[in-house]
Amino acid sequence: MDELFSVKDQVIHVSGGSRGIGRAIADACHQAGARVVISARTQATLEASGLPYEVCDIAEPAQIERATAAIVQRFGRLDVLFNVAAINFRHAAETYPPEKVDDLLAVNVRGNFLLASASARVMIEQRRGKIINFGSFQGHMSLAGVAVYGGTKGFIETMTRALAVEWAACNVQVNAIAPGFIQTDFNKPLWQDPQIHDFAVARTPAGRWGTPADIVGTALFLASPASDYITGQTLYVDGGLSAGQTWPLVVPR
Predict the structure, then answer these.
(1) How far apart are the two ends of the chain, measured CA to CA in Å?
(2) Residue of 97, 129, 140, 147 whose CA lies nearest to 224
(3) Structural class in CATH, domain 11-237
(4) Which of 43, 126, 168, 212 could lock 24 by a disulfide, CB 3.0 to 4.6 Å apart?
(5) 229 catalytic residue (yes or no)
(6) CA pair distance 54, 46, nearest whole angstrom
(7) Residue 199: CB partners within 8 Å, gap ≥ 6?
(8) CA–CA separation, 226 and 249 (whole Å)
(9) Cα Rg for the chain, rounded, in angstroms?
(10) Is 138 within 8 Å of 88 (Cβ atoms)?
(11) Residue 50 · residue 244 · CB < 8 Å
């Protein structure tokens, strides 16, 4: 049973692995005995992790190719990609700056796709591998002011299904994790705002914000042999947010 859920000795690349959800996943995989490489745009934050790393801005296709090749050269293979890196910009849709649209598409759409594609080329040759993309509850439920970000996360879910179908015969599984309201440095101004904090708590059936640690179990499961017959799925790790809402009706018990 331990082997079924093990990631020991697997070579795992965590993009966006220097902080937040990516860092929590990278640390957990490392503690579980995997050979982990993290990547992000900023070298200083990568160095602070204490893990092997590659500087990689996924908005730059050449950097994706270089980082992927460096990991394979170092370890001889690539077993798992956690495709976590993403950016956001909140602004009213009618005045959303075009250059910001381009920025989000370059990272959250093109960058995530090209990183998955570069990793899959290695995995297809190996005849095994797992790609875990990162969506969001906003790919399923919209919020005002984040139309572009939500759209990119909707793309992630569609891309996940399409790549799963395309690569299933090569023994490459492609799934996604869609977090709910998670407290990270990325969104610290939001969860430290009492009004927004309480808004999220009130709409999450679990009655609290999640933490990066809440994502780790699902991540390890999808990276392990236990998920070998699961592909094309998006798992919502959101405290029940996507399932529905509680409301003030008092029901008999």
Answers:
(1) 39
(2) 129
(3) alpha beta
(4) 212
(5) no
(6) 8
(7) none
(8) 40
(9) 18
(10) no
(11) no
Q: Distances in Å between the alpha carbon of 122 and those of 119, 128, 133, 173, 206?
A: 5, 9, 17, 13, 40
pLDDT at position 188 is 86
Res 249: pLDDT: 83
Specify the pTM.
0.95
Strand partners, 175: 132
| Cβ atoms < 10 Å from Cβ of 182 | 24
Cα–Cα separations (whole angstroms), residue 167 to 41, 67, 164, 228: 28, 22, 5, 13
Give the DSSP per-residue string, the chain: -TTTT--TT-EEEEETTTSHHHHHHHHHHHHTT-EEEEEES-HHHHHHH-S-EEE--TTSHHHHHHHHHHHHHHHS---EEEE---------GGG--HHHHHHHIIIIIIIHHHHHHHHHHHHHHHT-EEEEEE--GGGTS--TT-HHHHHHHHHHHHHHHHHHHHHGGGTEEEEEEEE-SB--GGGHHHHTSHHHHHHHHHHSTTSS-B-THHHHHHHHHHHSGGGTT--S-EEEESTTTTT----S-----
| Identity of the residue numbered 140 | H
Burial, 6: exposed, middle or buried (Cβ in 10 Å; 0-12, 13-18, 19+)?
middle
Residue ranges of the chain with pLDDT lower than 50? none
Whole-number pLDDT of residue 189: 87
Instruction: Check 96, 149, 229, 236 and give the catalytic one.
Output: 149
- Partners of 38 in beta bridges: 14, 53
Report pLDDT for 245.
85
Could you tell me how far CA 137 lies from the centroid of its own chain? 12
